[in-house]
C-alpha cells in the first residue's frame, strides 16, 4: 500500500487536465478584452473625426450658422451634419 501512495507517476497528467482548460479560458478572455478595447478606440476615433469635421464645417460656414434667415441656418446645419456623419462612419443615419 505504501508503494502505491508514493508512486507519483501520472501526476503531471492530472495537473495538466486541470490547468489546460483554465489556460484556454484565460486566453479567450484576454483576446475578448483586447477586442473590446480596440473597438472602443475605433469608436472614439470616429467620434473625434466627426467632431473635428463639424468644427471645420462651422468655421468655414459660420455666416450661414449665424444668419437671421431660419432656412439658411437649417440648410447650413444639415450640410455640416452630413459631413460629420460621413466622418463618423454612418452617412445613412437619419437622426442628428
Could you provide a short overview of the structure?
With 96 residues, this protein is an all-alpha fold. The protein has helices at residues 2-6, 11-60, 62-65, 70-88.
Task: Walk me through this protein's architecture.
With 96 residues, the protein is mainly α. It is 81% helix and 0% strand. It contains four helices and no strands. The chain is rod-shaped and about 100 Å long. The chain starts with a helix and ends in an 8-residue tail after the last helix.
Give the radius of gyration.
30 Å
For the termini, the CA-CA separation is 79 Å
Number of strands: 0
Q: Which class do the helix and strand fractions yield?
A: mainly alpha
Mean pLDDT comes to: 85
Helix content: over 70%
Would you identify the regions where 5 or more consecutive residues have pLDDT less than 50? Answer: none
Largest sheet properties: none
**Succession of helices and strands:** HHHH
Envelope shape: rod-shaped
In total, the number of domains comes to 1
Put simply, the count of helices is 4
Relative strand content: under 5%
Q: Which descriptors apply to this entry?
A:
single chain; 96 residues; mainly alpha; 4 helices; rod-shaped
Amino acid at each position: 500500500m505504501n508503494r502505491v501512495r508514493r508512486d507519483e507517476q501520472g501526476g503531471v497528467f492530472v495537473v495538466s487536465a486541470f490547468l489546460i482548460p483554465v489556460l484556454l479560458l484565460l486566453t479567450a478572455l484576454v483576446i475578448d478584452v483586447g477586442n473590446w478595447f480596440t473597438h472602443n478606440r475605433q469608436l472614439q476615433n470616429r467620434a473625434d473625426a466627426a467632431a473635428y469635421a463639424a468644427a471645420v464645417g462651422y468655421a468655414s460656414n459660420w455666416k450661414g450658422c449665424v444668419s437671421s434667415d431660419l432656412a439658411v441656418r437649417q440648410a447650413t446645419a444639415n450640410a455640416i451634419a452630413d459631413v460629420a456623419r460621413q466622418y463618423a462612419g454612418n452617412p445613412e443615419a437619419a437622426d442628428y
